[in-house]
Amino acid sequence: MMVFGYLLATGITTGALYALVAIGITIVYKATRAVNFAHGDLFMICGFIAYTFHVMWGLPYVASLVLAVIAGFAIGAVSERISFRPAIGHGIASVLLTTIGLSFVLKGIARAIWGGKGDFIPFPPLVHSPPISFADILVPPQQLVVLAGAIVVMLLFAVFFKFTQLGRMMQATADNPKAAKLVGIRTGRVYMYTFAVGTAVAGSAAVLMAPITLLYPDIGFVLFIKAFAAAVLGGLTSLPGAVLGGFMIGLIEAFSGGYISTNLQDVSSYIVIMLVLIFLPNGLLGGAALRRV
Amino acid sequence: MMGWRTTLVAIGTVLAGSALAGMGAQAQEVPGVTKDQIKIGSFGSLTGPTYLYGKLTMNGVDAVFAKVNEEGGVNGRKLVLVREDDRCDPATAIAAVKRLVFEDKVFAIIGGGCSNAALAARPEVIKDEIPFNVFASVADGISDPVSKYIYTTMTTSSIESRAQLQYAIEHKAKTIAVVSQHDAWGQSRYTPLMEDFKKRGLKPALDLEMTVDDNDATTQALKIAQAKADAIIMVLYAKPGAVLVRALNKLGQSPMLIGQTGIADPVAFAKEVDIPGATDKFVTPAAVRYAPTDPEVKDWVERIKKMFPNDNLSVFNLMGIGAGEVLVAALKKAGPDLTRDKFLEAMSHIHVKTDTYAGEIVCNDPVSHQCNQSVAWLGYKDGKAVALGVTHLQQN
Predict the structure, then answer these.
(1) Is the domain of B199 the same as that of B336?
(2) Residues B113 and B150 in one domain
(3) Which residues of A are less than 8 Å from B248 in CB distance?
(4) What is the pLDDT of residue A33?
(5) What percent of chain B has pLDDT over 70?
(6) How many structural domains is chain B composed of?
(7) Based on the domain organization, do B128 and B84 belong to the same domain?
(8) Bridge partners of B85?
(9) CB contact under 8 A, A125 and B246
(10) Whether B170 and B47 share a structural domain
């Protein structure tokens, strides 16, 4: 029971972080029909920005989180302007290539600024207490804090997306860009905000994740692959699907590693995705493919 | 009359020239050896992040050569080190060996920083029939199977793996877990480790895997906690190692942590884990038994500082010193009529105690040319690396 509980707690926490990153991938895809391959590296940069604020400059963790999210918003907006916007009229291949190029640029920037400290940087744990026991389930308090933070971010995002004007404009643009233009929505600006919000959400995941892992310039790609897998599993156009996919990937990794073999931990999620896509090509919650007219 | 004299002068010139050429040829019979100099070549990284294994180790060798030259050289011949940069690249290493052999015409080579580069250079070394003493590369494939020309004074991957298990046993570990990477680097250590377990009639309590990019080791830490492992043999780079140690700490676990030279610096590792006390039981092997700050190597450190003031002093300097001392001992043993065969004969059964290596250097031709079977252990205490003892292995 203890093992099951611990793996469950770990899987849910990791899954929540994957879900946050997957949300960013999904909202950009919904709006632009393009996968932002730099999304993982935007996540990574936010993590390093938080490290700078919290570890190098001594700001409190929460303040560092907020500042890193704001910085992520700004960086996401700039990245849309310099990588996505110029390529938008030149076909999907151009869009993908520019986002890949941006990914390499961001990695280079991270190495130039923070890479000199070594291959990776530790982020101090948030809490140092021993694991808490809930009915024979052992949970490290660190994970509880991270999970709580991730849930708060998800709820804030849901409120933003559903109840704010910008959120509704983003939904409208994602559903039908031509119709959105016709009703006066400046879709170009909405795309910029979409990238910015997606990066901000991913940035929050980076800051939440940093105390339970290590920061290094290539972490973005590793997380991107898993979050992309989560988004595909959930259905690339479904935000609830992205959340569901994230939690599923986290749990599958934890339980396969815990009960079958640690060798399977990394690949188990991809095996499941392959199986799901064979039988459900649009993912678990993705709608049927529609042709835009 | 003029024509007759001219002819005589011409014949005389030709005869004199031939005689001189003959004398020169005799003196140059042994490549790299003249009556007052022995040229030794070295290849390794001189630039880039892997310069530790190349340049710093070569600096140690140069320090030995400088000391020996001050004392009159080897049988009256001064030692000269010729360096080539292989940039840790296999193709460049082959080119470096060719340059050393055919352009610089060195007598022997002491070098090999990155294993992949040294492995690539092995066939070239054997083809060119040039003695090669490996000073930093750890891959077993460089010196095994045994080649007449290649010896290593560096503790190889398999020696480190066997030493890890020996350390656990010597420190009375009852439940030993293994956590390893299964990439090429990891496999080169994991396989001999498992063979050694089998040879001793033992089995690891847990055999777990991590990848270099793993960001979470909760599953592994949980299994270790369940098994109540009191020792973990880590065949990991520093990053997954740090992830594992942090995960163990979260669960309140503090077993013996026995690393490999993938985590060469216990002080740096403690900073990378960044949890006070989490690495108190961490040890890592080293080919040399001292840290640069130890008083026993003070004279050598002073010499290195004087010769190479920009060096960040490192165990790699000390490894070069040990390797240099072994080379010099073999050159002395080979005698004043120095040839490559005599040098190789001297290396084949050499017994040398150096100022820096953990144990005696014993080459056992034809059984093994892996001459360093002793591993020193470094731990971490009060912000510094501390020497914790030596494990001596029986040669396989």
Answers:
(1) no
(2) yes
(3) none
(4) 84
(5) 93
(6) 2
(7) yes
(8) B44
(9) yes
(10) no
Q: Does A142 touch chain B (CB under 8 A)?
A: yes
Report pLDDT for A118: 52
Question: Would strands B78-85 and B108-111 be described as parallel, antiparallel, or unpaired?
Answer: unpaired
Residues B184 and B236 reside in one and the same domain: yes
Residue A4, min C-alpha distance to chain B (Å) = 10
Residue B119 lies in a domain: yes
Establish if B3 belongs to a structural domain: no
Range of lowest pLDDT (A166-170, A194-198, B46-50, B131-135): B46-50
pLDDT tens sequence across B273-323: 988 999 999 999 999 998 888 899 999 999 999 999 988 788 899 999 999
Residue A116: pLDDT band by 50, 70, 90 thresholds?
low
Question: Which one of B218, B222, B263 would you mutate to disrupt binding with A, by most A Cβ within 10 Å of its Cβ?
Answer: B218
Most confident of A187-201, A208-222, B161-175: B161-175
Q: Are residues B251 and B387 in the same domain?
A: yes
Instruction: Measure the CA–CA gap between A202 and A17, rounded to whole angstroms.
Output: 8
d(CA A136, CA A2): 6
Is residue A136 over pLDDT 70? no
Residues B262 and B388 placed together within one structural domain of the fold: yes
Nearest-Cα distance to chain B for A247, in Å, is: 15
Question: What's the gap in Å between the CA of B26 and the closest CA on chain A?
Answer: 53
Residue among B214, B216, B251 minimizing CB distance to A131:
B251
Contact A258 B273 (CB under 8 A): no
How high is the pLDDT of residue B24?
46
Q: Is residue B314 part of a domain?
A: yes
Tell me the residue range of the domain where B326 lies: 37-155+293-365
In a domain, B277, yes or no: yes
CATH of the domain at B214: 3.40.50.2300
Could you tell me which residue, A13 or B13, shows the higher pLDDT? A13
Residues B142 and B223 in one domain: no
The residue of chain B nearest to residue A256, with distances taken between CA atoms, is: B219
SS (H, E, C) chain A: CHHHHHHHHHHHHHHHHHHHHHHHHHHHHHHHCCCCCCHHHHHHHHHHHHHHHHHHCCCCHHHHHHHHHHHHHHHHHHHHHHHHHHHHHHCHHHHHHHHHHHHHHHHHHHHHHHHHHCCCEECCCCCCCCCEEECCEEECHHHHHHHHHHHHHHHHHHHHHHHCHHHHHHHHHHHCHHHHHHCCCCHHHHHHHHHHHHHHHHHHHHHHHHHHCEECCCHHHHHHHHHHHHHHHHCCCCHHHHHHHHHHHHHHHHHHHHHHCHHHCCCHHHHHHHHHHHHCCCCCCCCCCCCCC
Per-residue pLDDT at B26 exceeds 50:
no
Q: Tell me how far apart the alpha carbons of residues B67 and B81 are, in angstroms, rounded to a whole number.
A: 13
The pTM assigned to this predicted structure is: 0.78
Whether A129 contacts chain B with CB within 8 A: no
The backbone torsions φ and ψ at residue B377, rounded to the nearest 5 degrees and listed phi first, read -110, 135
CA distance A117 to chain B (A): 10
Domain definitions of chain A by residue range? 28-230
* Interface ipTM above 0.90: no
pLDDT tens per residue across span A42-76: 999 999 999 999 999 999 999 999 999 999 999 99
Q: What is the pLDDT of residues B136-187, one digit of tens each?
A: 999 999 999 999 999 999 999 999 999 999 999 999 999 999 999 998 889 9
State yes or no: pLDDT of B4 exceeds 80.
no
